Amino acid sequence: MVWIGVAVTLALLGGVVWIAVVTGDKGSGDAPAAPTWQGPAPSEIALVVRRLVTERLAQAAGELAAVEELAQHHAFDMAVRNYSHEVDPEGVDLATRRARLARGFVGELTEWDHVVVPHGAKTAESLAEELLTGAGANGTELTALLASPRWNAVGVGVAAESKRCSLCLVFADHWATIEGGKIVEPPDAGWQVSGQLGGGVDAAEVEGVLLDDGGAEISRSQPTLVDPDGARPRAFTLVLAHPGDPRNLFLTMRRDGREGYWGPVD
């Protein structure tokens, strides 16, 4: 009877262990892993896209770090969160991203986006072409952007997540880059801005305007090149007169009546 009891006990224990193992395997509740991107590296696709865009542009356009960051940031966000639009699900648009990621950029920007879910094996070349001209792409808008002679920089952002591949192109008319600002003490009291003019932009074409919080103009001035024959021939300073503390005011940069920058003085 003792041996029978031991055998029964061992059998029951073995059954409990077996049940526990099976239950543990079946009841973990882990979601299946999301499919991973199986196509070419996004960096390879981006190189092809840049070559195709460069070939189709009406006027040569270079690369600018701030514009590249804007394009790559939004391409990644679209791929990860599965949408295709300039405005993200929270309502953040290009102007807001610019203020956050490229605060020193002065000029005009516009954006073109497309997301694809490719089928079958793809090369970097075929995927780049699909991103630019495939189903769902706004070809009319892209053609118009490529045909415009105004752009002097283009940012190319490509990202891939799961089965999706996204493209964000940011077209830029770059006038200048603001590098810093400081308060100027009396007698020339005001706000001094320093930066670099963009290639081909004349200092006489650009002006800075100091505004109050209601949008009323306080003062305006044009950039002055500080080292035209030196190591930084495009470097400038811009002094906007103001008798008091300018830190509650706003700066806008204009060219030919167009606004290319707006931000608080800080």
What would you note in describing this structure?
With 266 residues, the protein is an alpha+beta fold. It folds into two domains: 42-174, CAP (Pathogenesis-related Protein p14a, 3-Layer(aba) Sandwich), CATH 3.40.33; 185-264, no CATH class. It has six helices and ten strands; from the N terminus they run ααααβααβββββββββ. It has helices spanning 2-26, 42-56, 65-81, 94-101, 124-133, 139-147, and strands at 105-116, 153-161, 164-184, 190-197, 206-211, 217-221, 224-225, 235-241, 250-255, 258-264. Strands 1, 2, 3, 4, 7 and 8 form a six-stranded antiparallel beta sheet that branches. Strand 2 (153-161) and strand 3 form a beta hairpin. Helix 2 (42-56) packs across helix 5. The longest helix is centred in the first third of the chain and has 25 residues, at 2-26. Mean pLDDT is 86; it is low at 1-28.
In short:
The protein has 266 residues and is an alpha+beta fold. Helices cover 32% and strands 31% of the residues. The protein has helices at residues 2-26, 42-56, 65-81, 94-101, 124-133, 139-147; strands at residues 105-116, 153-161, 164-184, 190-197, 206-211, 217-221, 224-225, 235-241, 250-255, 258-264.
